[in-house]
Amino acid sequence: MLDRNADVDVLLVGGGIMSATLAALLTTLEPSWTIELHERRGALAEESSNPWNNAGTGHAALCELNYTPEKPDGTIDIAKAVTINEQFELSRELWHYLAAANRLPEGTGFLTNTPHLTFVRGEANADYLRRRYETLRRHPLFSDLEFSTDPTQIAQWAPLLVADRDPSEPIAATRAAAGTDVDFGALTRSLVADAERRGTRVHLESEITRLHQRKDGTWRVTVRDRRWNGRRKPRTVTARFVFVGAGGGALPLLQKSGIREARGYAGFPISGQFLRTTDPTLVAQHQAKVYGKADIGAPPMSVPHLDTRVVEGKTALLFGPYAGWSMKFLKHGSWLDLVTSIRPGNVVPMLQVGARNLDLLKYLIGEVTATETDRLRTLRAFMPTAHPKDWELITAGQRVQVIKKDAVKGGVLEFGTELVTSADGSIAGLLGASPGASTAVATMLDLLDRCFPDRADSWRPALQRMMPSLGGGAWDESFELDQLVDDESVHSEG
């Protein structure tokens, strides 16, 4: 055990993919530890991990252009693409390990093979995509990538992209046949169910309202029961380690914790909408995730894409996102979230970011005021035959982009994910958005290294058996169950 003065060893805040992933790792590495998970909603994965609140792309940098920027000399920088791809492969390795050990459902309950395509229009964009393809394919992780400017070939990959398109318009596409669609909601529920079987206590409609670190280093956490018939008086839980994986709710809780490392952070909320169709005729003609190029001033999370989505075994097509704006940090949050997050230490970074990102503000205003005709015009740039009667508008999840202090610029707007940990490693929280869920395993491994450095060496052999690429080995998806280490021996002595 970690600390005899603690009620629990680990307290997880938020019932999404991040907390679920950390629970899967810790219940394997330290099965004797006591773990509690608290989710303020009445069910798991109702915010960013909900499959209709994210694109479920399985971000592997196979089709996302923002991971392969063009340098001033015209060459393509693929460093981030390689990192993202490697991180997603870690997720695949862990999921396979758990499935092989009968800890996740077999079959395609949450993972579906779906080719990933990039589609661009215009000669300049086609030239960029060709150079991107030629650079990426020389790396082993992207050696299977295909490229074409031939409308007939592209139509074979994704017919809806080409049907009724002006033949004089130059187009180009790349295709990665091994791409995936991930139902992160189903995956989250399966991971948490496995953690419960291994002793984790899960509390729904349970909201963390206060965190206070005691002199002995443990955390006194105040919990409010949100059930209609729940106890009126809040209870307290003492935890040795706290992980705040509450999506948009993470920043306010980290601020309440008072840790120095959370000072200066602010959040800029961006909501989103998608067009969705379940028309069998359309769904049958498009089996791919197709990413395009972002508009000037648009954030990376707003890159347009036409996706095949498989949710609870049913297939649909999703197009978007259409960005919006709300003062809420969570889809089911409060309109006061943004206001109450403002602190003396983050006002200046927020103002400076706002002054330097007028193009983003202009873009958001345009998106918020967009009409049905505007949204249809954007869809038809991807799918010329789109008809409004076939599509419905749905509200997606809420994302909170990270604003943080910068020694030179005063404040910078980040579009990735940011892991914030206290100096003593007793609390950690995750801020930001994409690529988020797809790289949950890599992020949680980073957390283990930073928050439990005294156990890193003893855990390493077990982690390498679960994820062979951590040790420099190759992942063989066909390895047998008897090659796995018995769960009871895959942990260090507590």
- Binned strand content: 15-25%
Rough outline: globular
What class would the helix/strand composition place it in? Answer: alpha+beta
How many strands in all? 20
What is the domain tally? 1
Give the overall average pLDDT: 87
Rg, Å, rounded? 23 Å
Number of helices: 13
| CATH-scheme architecture | 3-Layer(bba) Sandwich
Q: How would a crystallographer describe the biggest sheet?
A: 10 strands, mixed
Kindly identify the CATH topology: FAD/NAD(P)-binding domain
Poorly predicted segments? 477-494
Secondary structure: helix percent: 25-40%
The CATH H-level superfamily is FAD/NAD(P)-binding domain
Q: Provide the CATH top-level class.
A: Alpha Beta
Tell me the distance between the termini: 6 Å
What would your notes on this structure say?
The protein has 494 residues and is α+β, with helices and mostly antiparallel strands. The protein has one domain (8-451): FAD/NAD(P)-binding domain (3-Layer(bba) Sandwich), CATH 3.50.50. 29% of the residues lie in helices and 25% in strands. The chain contains 13 helices and 20 strands. Strands 4, 5, 6, 12, 13, 14, 15, 16, 17 and 18 form a ten-stranded mixed β-sheet that branches. The N and C termini lie close together (6 Å). Its EC number is 1.1.5.4. Its cofactor is FAD. InterPro entries: FAD/NAD-bd_sf (IPR036188), MQO (IPR006231).
